[in-house]
């Protein structure tokens, strides 16, 4: 690939442009707001001039609702040999394109894609060439997609150091509904219950609810766009969750019954919810996309001085132990906390001994 | 306090006993399984012999269903001057005690308490004197509770370096339903949807669903006990969540409508869910139980070598920057990842410059 056109110079478009430009591709930048394209150009993502002729790849990085019209416009003026979009939903854009009456050759030159990357900030100033590094980048080619276009898309993904994953467009939309859109709404529904809760209750919050509600802090505007583009699969999944929830409420009410058989039935119902939750949780991929390795934790007490974490990590490094994950549990009302270091089981005694020797208080 | 009796030498009982023993209190240990009490004694938590006379404080640390009968037994034989239990639910034990026909003097000598501490392991071998450090420990005295007993309980909490919080028993049960039991079940319901999901979908999981489902990995047996002791408040909250969920499904279905007014109504409904989620999430206490400070993140690229984190933390410490929280985002299919360092906003330029100078790749 020697030339590219990036239409939509927000976070994703500008990040892809930066990656392409850093590999020597001549990138043209366009945005409905010329100021945004100028900003992206100033960051080194390319030029905001129009390409002289047909570029190799056009990357359409506009909000989901505008993808099909933007693609169709670019196709009609023959802007590129291949076209991709990067919207978070894939069934709709393809159907919209078909509805716009594009011919088979135009449709063959298009692949819907979705880089599974993001960050809390948006706009070109938040862009970075390494945004996609190591993250899945889904490709949804059709049966008639040109191989040449598939290879252009794969080249872009390689330049971005992302991991290509090929999926059917509708399967992709169901998958992101499952692993992202549904959990996002559920997290918000749990957090919503705290809005008017009493302060005395809220101060009992621990790490569990903190984790469950973390993504409820995300920017609502972006999420309305995402959810509006994928309402069907998300509604289907939420309905399934709602049915399970009703079942769970029934089981809890049965636990309050005077009838022992009903109570036993209720306990069985709750047990089944927890069993299924356990089973599902083990499927969440751990590090490196592999099946979850089971790590064990070493818990260290710290106070809140700068450098405490630094010293723990330095001491762990000196012992040759690789820390796989870290969790800091903050104490309530005190200048102290616990650091949970996740390591492979065989490292536990090594790390414990090494940290003890250096004077750390290790929780048994 | 000079003498104590701990009945039930699991994780919580043995941890409290270790804290008491370390402050010079003579602790007697009892368990329905004498082997457990012997183990706790061998760990230095006290003696498994019976006390010669009345002790100062009896700590009943048995499963919720056995609390009232165990307390009543100890009270009838005049085992202690004051009695507490440490079960995770507080309304039931008090009502059960009243139903057992204990007199006013006996009831005045009892306080239901709940240390908000726990860990994934159970049993005396998992116990540690610092289990409660910095965590809230709820006290639910009644109007007629002896002040002397309240002071004994406060002394125990001080020895455990926990933070005492006084609440009404039923308010406590509603609060833990809100901040712990309801989120626990919801996390399991989200995770349950992954049990039979296709592998291609599951591999798209990111940090969001990983956080939402983390607590679904907890031990089901313990959670059945907890939920069985608090079914009413949990069912009430889950019903509220279910009503919101139905509303959300309706809003998503409206987004699929051909009617533009309906679609606008649907978007408004989703917007409201996200707004409420945002508002509730900001109430989750951050570090030190304070109102959440807003931290900013500095993102560093690392590869998977031992010592990488150590060097980052050492470099941050050298720059005098206190890392408030850490999140490690693992890359899919690659030996690389991102480390997100949370710091107070004014530390961002200092930390960024310091890490850059030491050769780290910082995401802009």
From TrEMBL, chains A, B:
One Gene Ontology term of the molecular function aspect: prephenate dehydrogenase (NAD+) activity
Domain ACT: 297-364
Keyword list, A-Z: Amino-acid biosynthesis, Aromatic amino acid biosynthesis, NAD, Oxidoreductase, Tyrosine biosynthesis
PROSITE patterns: ACT (PS51671), PDH_ADH (PS51176)
UniProt GO BP: tyrosine biosynthetic process
Its EC number(s): 1.3.1.12
Classification via InterPro entries: 6-PGluconate_DH-like_C_sf, ACT-like_dom_sf, ACT_dom, NAD(P)-bd_dom_sf, PDH_C, PDH_N, Preph/Arog_dehydrog, Prephen_DH
Pathway listed: Amino-acid biosynthesis; L-tyrosine biosynthesis; (4-hydroxyphenyl)pyruvate from prephenate (NAD(+) route): step 1/1
Protein origin, superkingdom: Bacteria
Catalyzed reactions per annotation: prephenate + NAD(+) = 3-(4-hydroxyphenyl)pyruvate + CO2 + NADH
Coiled coil: none
Prephenate/arogenate dehydrogenase domain sequence ranges: 2-282
Keyword NAD on entry: yes
Record family assignment: Belongs to the prephenate/arogenate dehydrogenase family.
Protein name as it appears in the record: Prephenate dehydrogenase
Species for this entry: Streptomyces sulfonofaciens
